[in-house]
Amino acid sequence: MSEFEVNPVSPSPFFTVIIPVHNKANYLEQSLACVYAQTFKDFEIIAVDDCSSDGSLDILKRHESAGKLRLYQRGTPGPGGYAARNFGVTKAHASWVVFFDADDIMHTDHLSNFHDMMKRYPGLRFYCANYERRVVGRVSRKVMEISTGKYSRLEGLSMYSRDDFFHMNSACTQVSLFEELGGFPAGLYRRGGDVYFWVKLLTRVEEFAYSDELTSVWCVDNSSVTKNPSNLALHPMADFMARERPSLDRKCERQLCKIVNRKVISWAAEKKAQGKRYDRDLSHISLRGMWYRDAMRILLLFFPLRLYNFFVEVKRGLVN
Questions:
Q1: Which of 94, 111, 201, 238 could form a disulfide with 16 if both were Cys (CB 3.0 to 4.6 A apart)?
Q2: Residues 83 and 224 in one domain
């Protein structure tokens, strides 16, 4: 078996890799190649085409004919790919599911890293890893200093209140857990539904494991969901408390409030930069989760746009 072949005969693979596809022809061959190149070979690939019109479907059909993946087509495109991912999970033969966007990159040890974590920290239902965020070909993500290990619910919520310490591409979920949580909130949000799901997951698991090995890359420039200004509405986390009614102790709930604040303020800042209104966003801010940093960011939103942009550029310069 060559390094670019996937085991075609395993009736019960260890992992299912689910790839939603909507008009990704320019990236699809490269993305599929890095999945085929995984050193851990006991997995299947499910590609779900969401009404592509740019030749992506032809590429996927060619790979399906070669026996490298299973292909499904949806008749109605779902914003953000959430419905496509949910559908893919229903077709999975494995007990563990890994999501991968068709315009991103996974290193050859991505799946083996998850498998090694499962052997090191058995009995858990969720594993996640470090990732890289690239903008204009450059690394833009500030990686948190989190060591490989097993973490509690409170620790996970606390880490997420400071940063998105894992990403869609860097998560591995037990299929039964995914189903219990109801999957991604398809049909509700055009953007940010993944954050909603991952935070929901962190509120439900007692423990999970994290690896500081960087094994996947989020190429932000390729993301039409993130770049489309029409997808910038009220952040889904603003609905989280009312929709999910999480039953948490006081410490966990405070960390959850911090997550809501961080996400809502972040989108309000995007709207400010685009000249859009953000007063509704600020109405969802929780004082219970207010940090000094959040208060300063809110205060900055009330500055005139030109002065606001000046401070943002100064901050970027200091960070970079």
A1: 94
A2: yes
